[in-house]
Amino acid sequence: MQFVAVCSDSLGETADLVVRAALRQFESLNIQLRRYPQIRSEDEIRELMEEVHRKSGFVAYTLVQPELREAIKEESVRLGIRTVDIMGPMMQAFIDTFHDSPTQRPGVLHRLDEDYFRRVEAVEFAVKCDDGKDTSAIVKADIVLLGVSRTSKTPLSIFLAHKGYKVVNYPIVPEIKPPEPLNEPIKGQIVGLTMDAEHLLKIRSERLKVMGLPNGSKYASLARIVTELEYAYELFDRLGCPVIDVTDKAIEETAGIILGYL
Predict the structure, then answer these.
(1) Which among 195, 196, 191, 197 is positioned nearest to 256, based on CA atoms?
(2) Is the pTM value of this prediction over 0.70?
(3) Which residues are listed for ADP binding in this entry (predicted)?
(4) From the annotation, which residues make up the binding site for ADP?
């Protein structure tokens, strides 16, 4: 098993995400990924570097303290270990281009600032307004997601909420009249979500299996799905909102399109 260490004087989340993103490109590797957060001393650097040396791995790091950055460079030379500085080149680009100096404070990304509390509030809002629970909140939302069942409304809402946006998602059902606030001008961006009917059929059928329900339910019939999608398109057309086909799209990709509308 190969070994990769993630070293940080904060939580190490940034380096961890970068390493995992790169790792997805190497499906044949069996990697043990270990995070070393909150590194505060040169002794800790030496200890972790000795372990990496024993396991013949490499180190990805985000260290902002100059003495720790220098220590890991010295140890990499002494032990012949490959190290990857995740944040250093980016900080140097800011220094060289804008002639400014970094704060050199670890964990700045995770400060409990106004932006943090805004995201927390947005997540609470999204949970409260999930799946049409509180339609009155539509007038307060930054984004209103509309779509038939199983078009990724909930995970998309939570993802956008983590970006700080207040999101309401509402399920479209032909037999149920759309909520009254949609008939009035609202401040938020309304977005319609749709999906290929055959793809949606597979998702709904799997959902029924998970719930232990019979597969012959109207919910998972192609005719019912086509009816729902046609009704949804009629509503989207009446509202004049953009429509995103989420078939085979990752949540992040759909979210990026929505944020482009904003």
Answers:
(1) 191
(2) no
(3) 147-154
(4) 147-154
